[in-house]
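User: Could you check the structure of this?
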Amino acid sequence: MRQGTLSFAGMMVAVMVLMGASAMTARAQGVSLQEQLNAQYKLTKMGSDSNGVSVVDAGTLLAVQKGGILGVPWSVSNVLTTKYENGQVKTPGAVKQGFGAALNHYVNKEQTTHLIASGDKVYFTGITVTPAKDQVTVNLVECDTCNKVDPPTYVKAIVVFQFPKGQLATMQAGPVEDTIGQLFAMSDDQNGGGADQNAQGGGDQQQAQGGDQGGGQAAAAPAQQAEPQQIQLGMTTDQVVAALGQPEKIVNLGPKVLYVYKDMKVTFINGKVADVQ
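Assistant: Sure, the predicted structure tokens are below.
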């Protein structure tokens, strides 16, 4: 058991080293921060028909972690920007100072503003990286079905993540995603989650069956492991499973798939490792 514990610790050290290496390799291969964020967060496409506006293609579902984001109904053209800086949500001044009515009049005489609350579910509809201003801007829309809003209004908002001066140009995707995650965490209730759960359940059953068939051999495997397992950029899902075992959760977002383990998250793009966190 002691030998198995040491092997796991060694494995974690190797993975942590490779996490930084994979991000650096991505930059070295000419993959921009914009492209990495677009791969991490699938954008939602909106459309409209005779019944009004609707979600045409749902993207990554996110849960709001801190309230105070100023939103307006989808039909309103003017949207004031909420800023996130140093861990704080900075609501546009008029609302923060209690002049909500005046702001509503400015935005649209017949519409009202809405403060998006912690726990609400949203989608990203756009991501823009501006290194010159050390800003990452996200456009978002609320998931009315998830939030049980009836009739739906599809409240939208703009949030600017402000980074320290001169840092964004050299930052890797991981720290940027961590900052975004302080305000928008990936929700467990992704679209198509049922299929993911079925896939995960099948993996659990196979793992359980393998454990029954293997008996004591499966339990003895960690103790026999002499070298720490390594996760490298470009590995396939089968290679990762062979190294780390079945994940606790699988999030399928089309070309991007997330394998969530207890201590890490492996991101695959088109079936190959693109990032490890």
